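Entry under discussion copied across for reference:
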Amino acid sequence: MVAVMFMSAALVVLLCVLAYNLAVYALPFFVGLAAAQFAYETGAGLIGAGLVGLFSAGAAFGVLAGLFETIRSPVIRLIVALIFAAPAAVAGYALVHGVTKEAVTSDIWRQIFCIAGGGFVGFSALSRLVNGVGQPAK
C-alpha cells in the first residue's frame, strides 16, 4: 500500500513537470488538433489530417512567437502572452481534474485543487513566455 502511495506521488510530480515544460505549447497543440480533426472530417484521411495538424500547429506557434518577439508595446505583448497562457491554464485544470477525480471525494475541494492547478500552470506558462518563448525561466 505504501509503495502505491509513493508511486502515485511520483506520478503526480512527473505530470506536473511535464505540464510545466509543455505549457507553452498548449495553444499550438490545440490549434493543430482542431485543424487535424476538421481535415479528417472533411475527408483528408489520417495522414493528410496529421500533416494539416502539424502544419497548422507550427504556423500558430510561429505567428504568435513572431508577434511576441516583434511587438514592443508591453500591453500588446501581455495580450499575446495571455493568448498563449489561457489554453495552458485549461490544460492544467484538466490535468489536475484527471489526477484527483478518484482521489478527492469532495466536489468542492476537487474544484479548488483544479482551479489552483490551472492557475499555477497558466502562470508558469506566462512567466516562461515573458522570459523568452519556449525557453526555460531565467
Summary: The first helix runs from residue 2 to 22. The CA atoms of residues 25 and 92 lie 12 Å apart.
